[in-house]
Amino acid sequence: IANATVKESHLAIGSDVISWQTPPVENKFAKGAAYLSGVGYVPISEAKISVTDYGYRRSDATYDVVSVWDGNFFRLDDHIARFRRSMDGLRMHPPESNDDIKRILHEILRLSGLKNAYVAMDCLRGVPPPGAPRRTDFCAQYIICYCIPYAWLIAKDIQETRGAYIVTSKVPRIPDECVDPTIKNFHWGDLTKASFAAYDQGADTAILLDQKGNLTEGPGFNICLIHTSSTPIRVVTPERGCLLGVTRQSVIELCEDMGFECEVRAVPKEEMERADEVFICTTAGGIMPISKVDGVDKCGGKPGPVTMAMRTRYWEKRAEGWHAEQISY
Ligand code: PLP
């Protein structure tokens, strides 16, 4: 049994020593561990919220996700800082400080024993006290943190063989003025609709445009284009209309490391059509190659060589301890 210990016992009776083994007991946190404000630590299957919570009822919540690989958090402080900015932006004030959150995240990983994990921190609006008017400012916010085994947004074998297929969504991204995409949120109506349209077309995922026809982001990722014919190689990613992804920030740093130019600016859809390579990036998968855009092959329908070099370097640097914070299990 994974994550279990066999207990050896010995008992001396006169000159005899009797020994036995207690069968292994599976760690009840092995499938994932969670923390809820006011409740404490529970196995992932026992982490529950109330159906009356505005976090559920109105998607009135914010969250962040950090990855753990080989027992190390990646850019943990960046994720906690963005989580705090998101909470402040939504006027959410849970009782936990940033240091508390960091301690909780370490503890759930320690409890679970997971070495490669998807680690979420959520803040929910809560509910007004019983009988009180249904006013949002009467709610008390709370935090849920949990870890589960690491999950890939695009399956690893697809990344390494054919590359992912993307289509441009006919549904535009909800305007920034309505839902600020820099605050990580649960308003996934447009992203979910775009995902289903992509699956119907045999694609893996979708990219959404803003009202001006510029690229924004997709269901759970930022997008980057590569112009390999320019010197130096140029990587381009949208400036607005998207989450300021932590992986996108890592891509910007990787470009410097690898001698590429990186431009963060408005990126029209047409530029994606003529780009030499396209990739998507996120915490749940890192750098992932796109080999088909709107039914048209990129790089002969294979993952692009520059993308794959960046992807390799990303994972190598992580193994070398880049922005890593070690977990004590
Ligand atoms: N955009 C959206 C809508 C996301 O949900 C995510 C991550 O889940 C990203 C971009 C990528 O952000 P990060 O690299 O910080 O995971």
Order of helices and strands: EEEEHEEHHEEHEHEEEEHEHEEEHE
Percentage of residues in helical conformation: 25-40%
Q: Give the strand content.
A: 25-35%
Largest sheet: 9 strands, mixed
Low-confidence stretches: none
Give a list of the ligands: pyridoxal-5'-phosphate
Shape: globular
Structural class: alpha+beta
Q: Can you count the beta strands?
A: 18
N- and C-termini, Cα separation: 18 Å
Q: Indicate the mean pLDDT.
A: 96
Count helical runs.
8
Compute the CA-based radius of gyration.
23 Å
Structure description:
The protein is α+β, with helices and mostly antiparallel strands. 26% of the residues lie in helices and 31% in strands. It has eight helices and 18 strands. It has helices spanning 54-57, 76-89, 98-112, 156-160, 189-200, 246-258, 269-274, 305-319, and strands spanning 4-13, 16-26, 33-36, 40-43, 61-69, 72-74, 117-124, 142-149, 164-168, 205-207, 217-218, 221-227, 234-238, 261-265, 277-282, 286-293, 296-297, 324-326. Strands 9, 10, 11, 12, 13, 14, 15, 16 and 17 form a nine-stranded mixed β-sheet that branches. Helix 5 (189-200) links the parallel strand 9 and strand 10. The longest helix has 15 residues, at 98-112. The chain is globular, with a radius of gyration of 23 Å. The two termini are 18 Å apart. The mean pLDDT is 96. The site of pyridoxal-5'-phosphate (PLP) has 14 residues, from strand 12, helix 6 and strand 15.
